[in-house]
Amino acid sequence: MVLIEPHPTDEHQNQQEEEKETTKATSVSSLPSETTTGNPATAAASANATGGDAASDGFETASERDVSDSEEDDRARDQQKGPDSYQDALNDDELKEKALSQANDAKMEGNKLFRNGQYEEALLQYEIALQVTAEMPSASEIRSICHSNCAVCFMKLETIKECSKALELNPSYIKALVRRGEVHEKLERFEEAIADMKKILELDPANDQARRTIRRLEPLAAEKREKMKEEMIGKLKELGNSVLGRFGMSVDNFKAVKDPNTGSYSISFQR
Fold it and tell me: Does the record carry Nucleotide-binding as a key word (predicted)?
């Protein structure tokens, strides 16, 4: 048997052909895919889009997160603020309206007392009106009226105080007695007014004005005394009924009889 050895040249050619085939296969595999063929920019854009989708999948960028949080906070504040603010506004308006109504009632009562010469009681009503409308610009008219009337009340009441000081320094100062007596009369302090007029007559027996004032005020003073007694008896009657009612009795079982000579009362029991 004869062995034929391959020719070195043939072996070299085969090796070169194998290298060419390998190079060709490598070149073919390195070519771009069909989706990006012929346009590198398109390929880059596609890669970026794919990368962006992958990056944003399940994540938020800083700007997106900030905007989202801000919008949610704004909505939460609006939902919380809206109804509450509206309700608060309604409550505030209702309170102001109620305060104005109370102030007006107090002012009207003060005016009534003022016309009756009850300056101390009127002053109290004006002060109530001023208190309930404190720091309320819408109540400026009522407040101005109340302040003005308070000034008059203080003037009347201050007159008594200043006249009394004048009489302490000069007990025979008739003009101070006249002014103080007039204010006492306005305040329905008839007993005090009569006392000032009597003091004037002591200093000036010929003063007809003081004498006429005494005659005019004495019936008013007596009427006021009776009224005060009736009010006192009424209060005592209410108190007595609350106590006697526990024993099946009332103050109607007791009768008050006035003594015409002394003006005092005696109580008798009646079944």
Answer: no
Q: What percentage of the chain's residues is helix, strand, coil (to nearest 5)?
A: 80, 5, 20
Answer whether residue 217 is part of any domain.
yes
Instruction: Find, among 205, 179, 203, the residue nearest to 192 by Cα.
Output: 179
In the block, tokens 């296969």 appear at 25
218 token code pair: 């004495």
* Domain final position from 134, 169, 204: 169
45 occurs within a structural domain: no
- Number of domains present in the structure of the chain: 2
Q: Are residues 253 and 225 in the same domain?
A: yes
Is the pLDDT higher at 143 or at 69? 143
Which CA distances in Å does 188 have to 131, 140, 174, 227, 242? 27, 32, 21, 13, 33
Residues in Cβ contact with 215 at an 8 Å cutoff, skipping those fewer than 6 apart: none
pLDDT, one tens digit per residue, over 203-258 is 999 999 999 999 999 999 999 888 888 888 777 777 777 776 776 777 666 677 77
Structure tokens at 124: 């109290």
Could you give the CA distance from residue 84 to residue 172 in angstroms, rounded to a whole number?
70
Residue 250, classed as helix, strand or coil, is coil
104 assigned to some structural domain:
yes
DSSP H helices in 37-139:
40-56, 62-115, 119-132
pTM summary value: 0.45
- Owning domain of residue 212: 171-270
